[in-house]
Write a structure and sequence with these properties.
- The chain folds into two domains: about 5-95, Ubiquitin Conjugating Enzyme (Roll), CATH 3.10.110; about 110-240, Alpha-Beta Plaits (2-Layer Sandwich), CATH 3.30.70.
- The longest helix is centred in the middle third of the chain and has 20 residues, at about 75-95.
- It has a five-stranded mixed β-sheet. The chain has a three-stranded antiparallel β-sheet with strand order 1-2-3.
- The chain has helices at about 1-5, 50-65, 75-95, 95-105, 125-140, 160-170, 215-225, 230-235; strands spanning about 5-15, 20-30, 40-45, 110-120, 140-150, 150-160, 175, 185, 190-195, 205-210.
- The chain is α+β, with helices and mostly antiparallel strands.
- Helix 2 packs across helix 3 (about 75-95) and helix 7 packs across helix 8.
- The chain is built from eight helices and ten strands.
- The relative contact order is 0.12.
- The chain is elongated, with a radius of gyration of 21 Å.
Length: about 240
């Protein structure tokens, strides 16, 4: 079997990434019988990167592999990605969301999902809001960024894989500043709810940033969208 089909092996490497996060890359190399005269098949997975970023890493590894034809290359490829992951991610950061959306289109079989996040605070509010709006737009997510007193909520609806990509961006990108004014990642975010959108839920058509002066106004926003239960279950405890 191995003689006719070549061999496959998995390698996991941890890379210190540009966002100060350790990125665990799961690489699968399949070496065909004709290796190293032909390049290996490579698949790339990582919980810290979006699907589009994983695709970019794979493309760059295959580019490198072509430069090493006729010589064993796997070890060189691993060393190369450890040194260059930062640059690959930087290049893909500006286009990753668009590519993710375009490559997969709409996956109706996944259904539409909803995500409710609670943020503890925003120090650089204007910049933070702009970033959230851009991510929502790039990933074709609709919903609300809601401010009521000290409560900050993000409610998103969209494709399940886009919701997942949004969460990765929210956790790994430097979106705010700390008390000394230095850029920092969101460390005080909590996922209140992640669920499939039900028939009684109203779909948001756009993504909007809204401020509410009373809890009643905020409650009305949820009720209008058919999310009365979601509100009563998750929002009042935040006031305690």
């Amino acid at each position: 079997m191995a003689e006719t089909h070549g061999i496959s092996f998995r390698i996991q490497i941890t890379v210190k990434e540009l966002l100060d996060t350790d990125v665990l890359l799961k690489l699968l190399f399949h070496l065909p019988v004709s290796y190293p005269s032909t390049v290996p098949d490579i698949s790339v997975n990582s919980d810290q990167l979006t699907r589009a970023q994983c695709m970019d890493v794979k493309d760059k590894l295959l580019e490198q592999a072509k430069k090493h034809l006729s010589e064993p290359m796997v070890h060189d490829l691993i060393l190369w990605i450890q040194q260059h992951l930062k640059d690959v991610i930087k290049q893909s950061a500006t286009v990753c969301s668009e590519k993710t959306t375009l490559s997969k289109g709409t996956s109706a079989e996944d259904g539409i999902w909803m995500l409710l996040l609670h943020l503890d605070h925003m120090r650089a509010k204007a910049k933070y809001v702009k970033t959230v709006e851009k991510w929502a737009s790039d990933l074709r997510l609709t919903g609300r960024l809601m401010f009521m007193g000290k409560i900050i909520l993000i409610l998103l609806q969209g494709d399940r894989s886009s919701i997942k990509d949004y969460l990765i961006l929210q956790k790994t990108c430097k979106v705010d500043v700390d008390s000394s004014g230095k850029k920092c990642k969101e460390k005080m975010m909590s996922v209140l709810c992640e669920t499939e959108v039900q028939s009684q839920h109203k779909r948001f058509q756009t993504f909007e940033v809204k401020e509410y002066s009373t809890l009643k106004e905020l409650q009305k926003e949820f009720e209008t969208a058919g999310l009365k239960t979601l509100f009563s279950e998750f929002v009042p405890p935040l006031l305690k």
